[in-house]
User: Which sequence fits this backbone?
């Protein structure tokens, strides 16, 4: 079974803090993704990566950055957390270039910024 | 027009009935289609995928694809209370690499 893990299930941070969310997958997948999910807005893609040290902006990259130094690990960084970044953050991974096999999600991190 | 649209729901069916979840997509070049189930407070779980026109069955689940009508559906036979969840439709265009476009989901409640 594909396993995608995320570093925290719940996180509370203060406005202005730098926040790191970690994601690790154990299936040697090339592709990794970061989404946020908010009621009424669905899943929105923040950043994704097709390979080590590669990154691509998704639909809502503002206020975020990412790092992929190893194939199995993809980190999401909130440079200066703001209250509007309070959300559920979901990491996913997939293999293959054409997206034909679907994405597998981690358990999610519910981030609250106060 | 949204790229992927799902019937807005919420959808409520009695236990044992067939639940029908529908999804339309705008990109005629879309190649791969996925259904995810998401329980409240949990992350999405991939339950079905379909690539070719027609039906694909897996246990109580049947995915149906009609590329000419740009329509994909999920049927759940003999619905159980444990099927109560939000169901997300996702589409890969084939030209967007491995990106998926998700619908907003349909909330299904199966009443005992």
Assistant:
């Amino acid at each position: 079974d594909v396993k995608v893990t995320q570093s925290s299930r719940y996180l509370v941070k203060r406005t202005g803090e730098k926040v790191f969310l970690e994601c690790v997958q154990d299936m040697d997948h090339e592709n990794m993704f970061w989404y946020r999910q908010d009621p009424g807005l669905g899943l929105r893609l923040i950043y994704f990566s097709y390979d080590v040290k590669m990154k691509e902006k998704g639909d809502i990259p503002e206020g975020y950055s990412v790092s992929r130094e190893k194939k199995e690990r993809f980190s999401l960084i909130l440079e200066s957390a703001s209250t509007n970044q309070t959300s559920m953050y979901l990491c996913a991974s997939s293999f293959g270039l054409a997206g034909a096999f679907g994405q597998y999600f981690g358990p999610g991190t519910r981030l609250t910024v106060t | 027009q949204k790229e992927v649209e799902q019937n807005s729901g919420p959808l409520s069916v009695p236990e044992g009935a067939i639940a029908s979840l529908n999804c339309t997509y705008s990109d005629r070049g879309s190649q791969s289609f996925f259904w995810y189930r998401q329980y409240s407070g949990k992350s999405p779980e991939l339950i079905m995928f379909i690539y070719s026109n027609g039906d694909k069955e897996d246990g109580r689940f049947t995915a149906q694809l009609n590329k000419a009508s740009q329509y994909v559906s999920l049927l759940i036979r003999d619905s159980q209370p444990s099927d109560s969840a939000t169901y997300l439709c996702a589409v890969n265009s084939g030209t967007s690499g491995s990106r998926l476009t998700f619908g907003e989901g349909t909330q299904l409640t199966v009443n005992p």
DSSP finds no helices and eleven strands in chain A.
